[in-house]
From TrEMBL:
Domain RNA polymerase sigma-70 region residue range list: 21-84
Alphabetical list of InterPro entries matching this protein: RNA_pol_sigma-70-like (IPR039425), RNA_pol_sigma-70_dom (IPR014284), RNA_pol_sigma70_r2 (IPR007627), RNA_pol_sigma70_r4_t2 (IPR013249), RNA_pol_sigma_r2 (IPR013325), RNA_pol_sigma_r3/r4-like (IPR013324), WH-like_DNA-bd_sf (IPR036388)
Keywords, comma-separated and alphabetical: Sigma factor, Transcription, Transcription regulation
Residue ranges of every copy of the RNA polymerase sigma factor 70 region 4 type domain listed in the record: 126-178
Any matching Pfam family: Sigma70_r4_2
GO molecular function: DNA binding; sigma factor activity
Family: Belongs to the sigma-70 factor family. ECF subfamily.
GO BP terms: DNA-templated transcription initiation
Protein name: Sigma-70 family RNA polymerase sigma factor
Length: 202
């Protein structure tokens, strides 16, 4: 007789929980792996591992956070060891209010009360995603969970199995670097220019 504890979990409840989170999970996987093909493989591998471990999931708890924990573990175990960081960003050069400082230097505060938001509003979704993907892995993972998955600090801590204080610290540093990347994207796409002249308000 087969041991019930060794029997595979029923597919229907698992699929019902998994289906609603797949699109967001793919977005996270894409930000982590920086490759659409790798993202698909990562989501599939995480789904397989989650199905095998579904008996460990506690009904009534956050399935998405549980699945994303498995997905990030798959990334750490399989993908990051064969990926090279494209470049190193110097966090010391990133001021806490980097966008505010840059827009102020161009005199944009005399044109609009919130120039940083105005600049960000002109960036496309692909450009914002590219900026997140350019971050070093330590900050990219946290920023993707926060900005893409829209998880709270406590939920991110649960996904990464780390203290909330660690999440806050990494997100703080990641935000500083992300502002630099977004400003560079705005410059690259002509949204702002170094020679922009301030328009005086009479």
């Amino acid at each position: 007789m087969t041991d019930p504890s060794q029997a595979p979990p029923p597919a229907e409840p698992f699929e019902a929980l998994l289906a609603p989170v797949l699109d967001r999970a793919y977005a996270l996987a894409y930000h982590l792996s920086r490759s659409r093909d790798d993202a698909e493989d990562l989501v599939q591998e995480a789904a397989l591992q989650a199905f095998r471990a579904f008996h460990q999931f506690r009904p009534g708890t956050n399935f998405r956070a549980w699945y994303l924990h498995i997905l990030t573990n798959c990334f750490f175990a399989q993908y990051r060891k064969r990926k090279r960081e494209p470049r190193t960003l110097n966090i010391e050069d990133a001021e806490p209010l980097y966008l505010y400082s840059r827009t102020r230097e161009l005199g944009m505060h005399e044109k609009t009360p919130d120039p940083a938001s105005a600049v960000l509003g002109k960036l496309g979704e692909d450009q914002v995603h590219a900026a997140i993907q350019a971050l070093p892995e330590e900050y990219r993972v946290v920023c993707a969970l926060y900005f893409v998955e829209e998880l709270a600090y406590q939920e991110i801590a649960g996904v990464l199995r780390c203290p909330v204080g660690t999440v806050r610290s990494r997100l703080h540093r990641g935000r500083k670097l992300l502002q630099k990347e977004l400003w560079a994207a705005a410059r690259e796409h002509g949204i702002v220019t170094a020679k922009a002249a301030p328009e005086r308000v009479e």
